[in-house]
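Re: Re: ligand-bound prediction request (bumping)

Still looking for help on this. To restate: I need the protein modeled with zinc ion bound, output as structure tokens. Inputs repeated here so nobody has to scroll up.
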Amino acid sequence: MSEADCLFCKISSGDIPADIVLENEDVVAFRDINPQAPTHVLVIPRRHIPTINDMQDADDAIVGKLFLAARDVARQEGFSEPGYRVAMNCNGAAGQTVFHIHLHLLGGRDFGWPPG
Ligand code: AMP
Ligand code: ZN
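Reply:
Sorry for the wait, this slipped through. Here it is.
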């Protein structure tokens, strides 16, 4: 999928609406349309990176910023304690369906392990 066709690039640019909970110069966080927990937020970089496999060494800062945004949303949503789940799927075996990297931030319930 090219950048021009990418759903999450369109959410980042504002062309497609989303329920945004945090945004800054580098990242956007918005509520998942099909939530798997009481709170389910996706954290994306504004820049189009299709999968974890496409991350470059020089992307270390942006990858770190995804986690810092997840930390801030968890705090905002009030579940830093007792805790939450952060996950990123890579390619088909893991069930990735949107090829613009995104951290799933899930909170508001207990989570099992292994995740399945
Ligand atoms: P993944 O399967 O890891 O690629 O996750 C993609 C996620 O994007 C799924 O949890 C979908 O529910 C979510 N999703 C798809 N379209 C939208 C949308 N327009 N707004 C918010 N979340 C979406
Ligand atoms: Zn994209």
